[in-house]
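Methods — Computational structure assignment.
A single polypeptide chain was analysed. Its primary sequence is given first, followed by the predicted tertiary structure written as structure tokens.
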Amino acid sequence: MPQAPERTQDRMRAEWDARARENAYHYVASGNETWTKEEFLQSGRESVKAFVVDDIDRLCGGRDPKQLRALEIGCGAGRMTAALADVFGEVHGLDVSPVMLERAAELTAGLGNVRLHLGDGATLPPMDGAGFDFILSYIVFQHIPEKQIVASYIRQATERLRSGGVFKFQAQGAEPEPGEALGTWLGAHLGAADAVLLARETGCEVLDFLGLGEQYFWLWFRKPETAPRHDRSSDLLLADLARREDSAQRLQTELRERTAWAQTLDQRVAELDRLVPRLQGELEAANAWARSLDAEANELRTAVDERTAWAQERDRHAAELTRELDERTRWAQSLEQERDERTAWARSLDAELEQARGQLASLHSSWLVRLGRRLGLVKA
């Protein structure tokens, strides 16, 4: 259910104020996030040349632009307003965001033929009460979430047009995707039938149109001085009808392709249905085989656990044997050391014995022993 217009307008003002505070130049011209002031103004001059100057004869009907009064609906930060002031004698800029208008005042400071106005988001303020020879709105209506507000702007603008004046505006011509939410960035759709009805309601002729069914849908509304002479309303409706027929043909082609694709899927599903019993049997066999593998794996795990326990016990026993061997080795080394000590002691005893024997032999052969024998004191 659409919001009440007052609430929508408040939302439009609040959200565009927030964008202006964050990065006004980027949200006005989103192709660049870091505009310098001069780059921003130059982009506005390029847009005015493309959409106004190159179309000036049709927009002004041969009159001198310097003698004409122009209005820009949704002037934002003044990107195009300053450039329009170089073309027209008097330029008025209107915006719903007071913060955007502060930025526009900075860019148009010193331009005596520029007037800036704060709007309510759906209608036009008095703006000195006079009419306009040319009204422009670019990348504004596509950010308005409700069609009734866009229609209100168009009605108000055509009421302010002088006879022979042109209102050139751009709207959201592309229809939103199903379920796509509308807001102050993606706005409401305006179709060919909507445009023709508004033109007839306001007594204007559709001077021209461009980009039907696209995001940038341009329309030229002219307030004729007499009866409409160049009204292209029927051309617009026929173009929309042709576009819809092309779209319908594309949809029919796509439907046929999708139907063929669905039939192919049905065939594949039927084939799969036939394969299901065999696959179920194979699956059961595979499950049984898997269960047998699980049983074998469990047996192997048990055997591995047993072997692991045996290996651990063997390692423990080997460690004990190693410790015992180390102890025996140390004991044998101590015995060898004791043997070596006893051998050395025995050798020292042998040496002492030999020495004693030598001493005894020398003593036995000495003259004192011989004398003692003769005297019978020493036995032979």
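Note: Strands lie at 69-73, 90-95, 114-118, 132-137, 161-171, 205-210, 217-222.
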